[in-house]
Specification:
The structure holds two protein chains of two kinds. Chain A has helices spanning about 20-30, 115-125, 145-150, 150-160, 175-180, 195-205, 210-220, 240-255, 275-280, 305-320, 335-340, 350-365, and strands spanning about 10-15, 35, 55-60, 65-70, 80-85, 85, 90-95, 105-110, 130-135, 165-170, 190-195, 205, 225-235, 260-265, 270, 290-295, 300, 325-330. By secondary structure, chain A is α/β, with parallel strands linked by helices. Chain A has a single domain (about 10-365), classed as Alpha-Beta Horseshoe (pyruvate-formate lyase- activating enzyme). In chain A, the strands form four sheets. Chain A has an eight-stranded mixed beta sheet, with helices on both faces. In chain A, strands 2-1-3-8-6 form a five-stranded mixed beta sheet, with no helix packed on it. In chain A, helix 7 packs parallel to helix 8 (about 240-255) and helix 8 (about 240-255) runs parallel beside helix 10. Chain B folds into four domains: about 1-110, Conserved hypothetical protein from pyrococcus furiosus pfu- 392566-001, ParB domain (Alpha-Beta Complex); about 110-155; about 170-255, no CATH class; about 270-330, no CATH class. Chain B is about 50% helix and about 10% strand. Chain B is built from 16 helices and six strands. In chain B, the strands form two sheets. Chain B has a four-stranded mixed beta sheet with strand order 1-4-2-3. Chain B has a two-stranded antiparallel ribbon with strand order 5-6. In chain B, helix 9 packs parallel to helix 11 and helix 14 (about 240-255) crosses helix 15. In chain B, about 25% of the residues are buried. Classes of the chains: A alpha/beta, B alpha+beta. The structure holds iron/sulfur cluster. Iron/sulfur cluster binds near residues 91, 92, 93 and 98 of chain A.
């Protein structure tokens, strides 16, 4: 089983052999051709738009494993901490930001994570007054490679010893068997990226349908996990209101709203250079049809009234379902918060406090 | 190192001009040049440097150097052309190519299409890495994979597009944007760019907006510009070319960004309805993205400032100035 990944080869970078995770992964993918290769700074070769999702590259990561989400000062950021366990993803969403990094192709797994966990743990422990909301889903889908890599075996026990940290595993997959078989539940959040059923079918290639994602979420809820959801990116498309309502209706059918820690909303935004990649890699895509303007962060985003309209509608139908879902906006201004949700955390610290508080309430932490 | 003395020793042969191909072949890199000056020079002074050729398989003759001279001689209907035959010198195809490259690079600048031809030929003989780092700087191109791929793509394009690129009428950035357009319709856009004499900046906007609209609305480029508002502008005899260009770009923008352009227009109307003097200006933030509108008062002294504030204070309808769109109710 490799989940949604369809590997044809494994490349083991010089230096990766010494880590036990390398042998564990090679054991799981026994039978695939293995090449031992030198580290490369960037890809040189034809077809620069080919992300080579069929190659798994195992390598040690030399940078910082735990880093705050870069955010921008112009928009309100949630203050998330990124645990950088690898990059790229076997799914192929047309809007995926990782396509801009085609000079770093292949699915890359950092096999030295285990050796860095003590250091990361020390850092978290030293800052006991701060609540760390940690996620692995920034540069890849958190669960898409779980059956190959088995991060849960490292990360869940690691988290169980830390009273001031929560781990959010963000996914579009239904790869939850491993999680469900683990004994850990405390301070673990499993969250799903959601969209309208039609966007999921057309623009999120390789990802399960919304219904299947929600069924996986339901299984997690049934087994005692706290869940979250991210409507990100919200995309303006034909009959988008009805389409997003269908998703919320499915949530109503399958999910217990009381077990939801938060739901984020974020309209599609993209770096300008991604446009030509999307046009080339996803020729039938309509995600760029809307009226995009250049935002303060240098990214393209929908013209303000369109964003306000989408957030207002989404928060309205979510609130009609349940009035305490922890709905928040991802990377938006104070003005947009006020206009769409009727309140605003005002700044990034305010939003961090709001989310910390929700985590503390759900997990009975003292913050 | 190329041994030029050996080239000079290559035997002389006379070739039937018809036996030499009209296309540049694997070693030459000339495109979009004017032949007339060379024809005139040959008419006046004769052929000063002899072309160099090699014989390929099946009686093919490839020009190593002097491609333009051969075309000029053919144009003058010279039946027999004297050349140096480098076939017996044992030089590799790469050597032939480099000979041509160096000979040309010391005497002239290459246009964009010629750069593309050079890269497309080099890539057959030299690893990409080396082409990127050793040869692209020689052509004043950045050593980047993406730039190499862009230029390799240029070599295979339609003649009208290449010709516009070679003449500098269409920018390389516009060419890159054109690659997102369905290949059948690129020449239509190029023709419109040339007809409207768009600046490089306008070319980019024009291509992007036209392509975005076509993808969004499921139409093709000719279908878009056959729509009556576009035709009306293009065929309006009262408009001069800059007015037509402005009209077409404005229309494209309003089709591509209907809500934004409507908002800009209603805001402009609302402000002009206030009848402000030119000493008072009210503007919206770029794309309305920021939360605040802006007021500019021009004044010569405190007295004037007070007076202008007074005018503003008493202005009818100022308080009605608001976002020019309707928002969804919470
Ligand atoms: S799931 Fe996320 S990381 Fe994977 S392709 Fe889609 S957007 Fe990119």
């Amino acid at each position: 089983m490799t989940g949604p990944a369809r590997f044809k080869r494994i490349r083991v970078e010089e230096g990766a052999e010494t880590y036990s995770q390398t042998s564990v992964i090679l054991g799981r993918l026994n039978g695939l051709p293995v090449e031992h290769v030198k580290p490369v700074q960037s890809r040189q070769g034809p077809g620069a738009l080919d992300l080579d999702k069929e190659t798994l590259r195992l390598l040690p990561f030399q940078g910082e494993f735990l880093k705050p989400c870069p955010g921008t000062k112009e928009y309100i950021c949630c203050g998330y901490q990124i645990l950088h366990v690898g990059t790229n993803c076997p799914l192929d969403c047309s809007y995926c930001v990782l396509q801009a990094y085609f000079n770093q192709p292949e699915l890359r797994v950092f096999v030295n994570l285990e050796s860095k966990l003590d250091q990361i743990g020390d850092y978290i422990d030293r800052n006991s007054g701060k609540l760390f909301r940690i996620g692995t889903g920034e540069f890849m889908d958190s669960l898409a490679l779980e059956s190959v890599v088995g991060w849960r075996k490292l990360l869940l026990p690691f988290l169980s010893n830390r009273m001031n940290a929560v781990l959010e595993l963000k996914t579009k997959t239904e790869e939850v068997d491993g999680l469900l078989s683990s004994p850990w539940r405390e301070r673990i959040i499993v969250s799903w990226s959601l969209n309208s059923p039609s966007i999921a079918a057309v623009e999120e290639k390789g990802a399960p349908s919304i219904k299947k994602r929600l069924e996986a979420a339901r299984r997690c809820q049934d087994e005692g996990f706290v869940v979250g959801f991210h409507f990100d990116p919200l995309i303006e498309h034909q009959d988008w209101k009805d389409a997003y309502r269908r998703t919320v209706d499915m949530m109503d059918d399958l999910i217990n709203p009381n077990g939801i820690i938060w739901i984020s909303l974020g309209c599609l935004r993209y770096m300008p250079l991604l446009k030509k990649v999307i046009r080339k890699r996803h020729t039938g895509s309509h995600i760029l049809d809307g009226e995009f303007i250049l935002g303060f962060d240098g990214k393209m985003r929908y013209f303000k009234p369109i964003r306000v309209g989408m957030y207002t509608y989404m928060s309205k139908i979510l609130n009609q379902w349940h009035d305490d879902l922890g709905v928040y906006l991802c990377m938006e201004s104070d003005e947009i918060w006020q206009r769409s949700l009727g309140w605003s955390p005002e700044h990034s610290e305010g939003l961090s406090r709001y989310l910390d508080q929700r985590a503390a309430n759900v997990f009975g932490m003292n913050y | 190192m190329m041994n030029m003395m050996e080239i000079a020793k290559a035997p002389l042969i006379n070739l039937d001009s018809k036996a030499i191909n009209d296309d540049p072949g694997p070693f030459c890199m000339s495109y979009g040049f004017a032949l007339d000056p060379l024809i005139r020079s040959i008419q006046e002074f004769g052929l000063i440097n002899l072309p160099i050729v090699v014989k390929g398989g099946e009686g093919r003759i490839d020009v190593v150097s002097g491609y333009r001279r051969i075309l000029a001689l053919k144009n003058l209907q010279i039946g027999e052309i004297s050349c140096r035959d480098a076939t017996g010198l044992g030089l590799s195809p790469l050597r032939h190519l480099l000979l041509n490259l160096h000979e040309n690079s010391v005497t002239r600048q290459f246009n964009e299409v010629e750069k593309a031809m050079i890269l497309a030929r080099l890539i057959h003989h030299i690893p990409r890495e080396e082409v990127i780092h050793s040869y692209m700087p020689l052509l004043s191109l950045p050593s980047r994979e993406s730039t190499l791929d862009l230029f390799l793509n240029m070599d295979g394009q339609d003649h009208s597009l290449k010709s516009a690129l070679a003449k500098g009428e269409v920018s390389v950035k516009a060419f890159e944007a054109l690659l997102a357009v369905e290949s059948d319709f690129r020449t239509d856009l190029v023709q419109l760019i040339l007809n409207l004499r768009l600046t490089f900046n306008q070319q980019l906007q024009f291509i992007e907006m036209a392509n975005d609209i076509c993808i969004r609305d499921g139409i093709d480029i000719p279908g878009l510009f056959k729509q009556s508002p576009f035709v009306e502008i293009m065929e309006n005899e009262k408009l001069n070319l800059p007015q037509k260009t402005k009209g077409i770009l404005g229309l494209l923008r309003s089709v591509r960004f209907p809500l934004l352009t409507r908002s800009e227009e209603s805001f402009r109307k609302a402000v002009s309805g206030l009848g402000l003097s030119d000493k008072l200006r009210i503007s919206h933030p770029p794309f309305f993205e920021g939360p605040d509108y802006r007021l500019e008062i021009t004044f010569g002294n405190g007295r004037q400032l007070k007076d202008r504030i007074k005018v503003l204070n008493n202005l009818e309808g100022l308080e009605a100035l608001a976002d020019p769109w309707q928002e969804e109710k919470r």
